[in-house]
Amino acid sequence: xxxxxxxxxxxxxxxxxxxxxxxxxxxxxxxxxxxxxxxxxxxxxxxxxxxxxxxxxxxxxxxxxxxxxxxxxxxxxxxxxxxxxxxxxxxxxxxxxxxxxxxxxxxxxxxxxxxxxxxxxxxxxxxxxxxxxxxxxxxx
Length: 140
Known about the structure:
This protein is of the alpha+beta class.
């Protein structure tokens, strides 16, 4: 089984996220033993925010990226039993169930429970912005 970083690289739909992680110096974090949970916005999700603005500010970039990573391995069944997941950024993501569908913060799941040697990846359709909590319009 491969680690989170290798899994992202081999998938091919996370180029924007991988570039941002490298720029922020966070790639090693996703290779550490963990366990970690990564809520991974795919390339399509990254088009919904202005990544140039985010990547142009190192502090903002680090904040946004660490807001997508949680200590511990949270599978779907774990998420369904909680309301909050605390991130490496130090702020929580809100977990909700709407019309029988699990959501996390402002995102829907594209794919869930991708097992890795050091945790789990959930692919999401939006980018979390730490200045907001819960549902919001991604306008950065």
